[in-house]
Write a structure and sequence with these properties.
single chain
């Protein structure tokens, strides 16, 4: 089994950042943000992360536990206002000024996935690399399937996975397989 201690800090951060980037990319893949939709997708992603803590592959377990511990460490620190809030005019919400760019976020997730797989290709055994790649694709798949989408507008039929979401999953799968 591959150990997280086998990686440099930069490599480990890359491996630990990829699942979150995949989750964020999946929530934005169809470009239709909404509060209820976001909550459903986030809950679905959280479920996949929780399940990974008991995954049959020890490497996936260790990555999921490291992510949990990393998140818990961030919650224990006092809140410091982000840099983008400094100088924000009164009465203007930060969310009104900065919205995530779906193209940029999905591209970032695919790039991080490919880079993480490349690191694992060099330093991990094949079973761990395959399990990690499958897990990343599963995160995206579960998140996009947690809500349905009307592709053609209000009078169109709902689809489980939109064309944009499927394209995102296909790009992730290609990054994992490359």
């Amino acid at each position: 089994m591959t150990n997280l201690s086998d990686f440099s800090d930069d490599e480990l951060n890359q491996i630990l950042d990829a699942p979150g980037a995949v989750l964020k990319g999946a929530t934005l893949a169809d470009g239709r943000p909404g509060a209820v939709r976001f909550l459903r997708e986030a809950a679905s992603g959280a479920k996949v992360f929780r399940e990974a803590q008991e995954h049959e592959n020890g490497f996936i377990q260790s990555v999921a536990i490291a992510l949990r511990d990393r998140t818990k460490g961030r919650q224990d620190r006092p809140e410091v206002p982000p840099a983008e809030k400094v100088g924000t005019p009164e009465g203007v919400a930060v969310s009104d000024q900065v919205r995530p760019d779906p193209e940029r976020e999905t591209a970032r997730a695919v790039e991080l996935t490919a880079a993480s797989i490349a690191v694992l290709r060099e330093r991990a055994d094949a079973a761990d690399r395959a399990a990690y790649g499958e897990w990343l694709v599963r995160i995206a798949t579960e998140v996009v399937r947690s809500t349905s989408t009307r592709e053609g507008g209000i009078f169109s039929k709902r689809v489980a996975v939109s064309a944009g979401e499927q394209a995102y999953i296909d790009r992730l799968a290609a990054a994992v397989g490359s």
